[in-house]
Amino acid sequence: MRVIFDKELIERIQQLESHVAQLRNLLKPGKYESKQNSKIFDHKKYAKRHVLLQVAYIGWDYSGFVVQEHTEKTIEAELFKALEKTRLIESRETSNYHRCGRTDKGVSSFGQAVSIDLRSNLSEGKGVFIPEGHQPKVETKAEIAYVGILNKVLPPEIRVIAWAPVSESISARFDCQKRTYHYYFPRATLNIEKMKNASQHLIGEHDFRNFCKMDVGNGVVKFHRRIMDIQIEAIDDSTDGYSMFRLKLVGQAFLWHQVRCIVAILFLVGQGKEEPEIVRQLLDVGQNPRKPQYGMASELPLNLFTCSYSEDVCQWIYDAESLRYVITGYQSLWAENNVKATMLKEMLSELEKLSDVKIENQLKSLVQGIEPKIYLPLMKRQKCESLEKRIEHYAKRKRIEIIETDETS
């Protein structure tokens, strides 16, 4: 009974904490308000339209996707600045907003999706509705060019790729059928075939508590997830340690840091430090209920590449002119970064000519933690706290906080 009570208490506390966090963000006056355009805009002259937006971003220099209290350097903060500056929404709290995924600091995306109610030029059509008290004055049959006007005011790293009108009940998060992540890495000295063999154990529904960071503090106490497909493919024709590969991971939903933990384990297999069988062992939570301590793979190569919806729900609309604008901007970013990579590669080539020893340590910066001189196998390492202990400690801490709050109120 105690475990059941603890889980119910955690759920209730999490709901309250989430509500408080949302209110704090929503009640910050003028956070996204444009100082240059203070003229009052009457949103009641327009209908609204429920849409999905496909948002791409290079997240290396951002503190993640979701709005945070301690920084405005997030993708979501920039997105809402643009939405309010262009008067597409009146405020976040009235926008019926949902995001498909939460990407962490440094993580990028090509296919992040958000659902939201935007201002519309129309009075009818899929997703169009007239809120109570609104009296739209329809003077045109053309819809607002959502993608084009947003991209004009967004930072160069963030771009809207497409939009889709959807039914009012559709949520970017809850109606997503599958999510696809890409992770990019150099071959270095990795045994790619061993990594492929190990990765196949991940397909299917499993308890992934040993392949994630347990988020008990946010009410996550169930760790079963289903991976539909996983592939490791070469991106270029090179065969040396600098050749690039892509890991493609498809699933319905993912746990906190799940992809980065999976990549870290596959790297250990590829380096010959663990056998492919280690993946099956870590998935057997009956025999191995506590996660061995290991460093995650870096966040920089990770990309939430697609969020997929059924065709009945969503049919993306792409605008040729907007696509040209996005391509041109991203080509500039590509040129800058590829020039840097090419320069470094040439310098490395010259350095390698001067060295008698072949060094292939291209993977070092993509694995967190200090590399020990003597490798300790995963199953012999110190184990993290069990799920049950984490739940017990979290519930106890929250009970104490509630008692202290009651005593001071």
UniProtKB/TrEMBL annotation:
GO cellular component, one term: nucleus
InterPro entries assigned to the protein according to its UniProt record, in alphabetical order: PsdUridine_synth_cat_dom_sf (IPR020103), PsdUridine_synth_TruA (IPR001406), PsdUridine_synth_TruA_a/b_dom (IPR020097), PsdUridine_synth_TruA_C (IPR020095), Pus3-like (IPR041707), TruA/RsuA/RluB/E/F_N (IPR020094)
Entry keyword annotation includes Ribosomal protein: no
Any one GO molecular-function label of the UniProt entry: pseudouridine synthase activity
Source domain of life: Eukaryota
Record keyword Metal-binding present: no
Domain Pseudouridine synthase I TruA alpha/beta: 198-310
Pfam families noted in UniProt: PseudoU_synth_1
Any one Gene Ontology BP term: mRNA pseudouridine synthesis
Alphabetical keyword list: Isomerase, tRNA processing
CDD domains, per the entry: PseudoU_synth_ScPus3
Homology family: Belongs to the tRNA pseudouridine synthase TruA family.
NCBIfam families for the chain: hisT_truA (TIGR00071)
Name recorded for this polypeptide: EOG090X083V
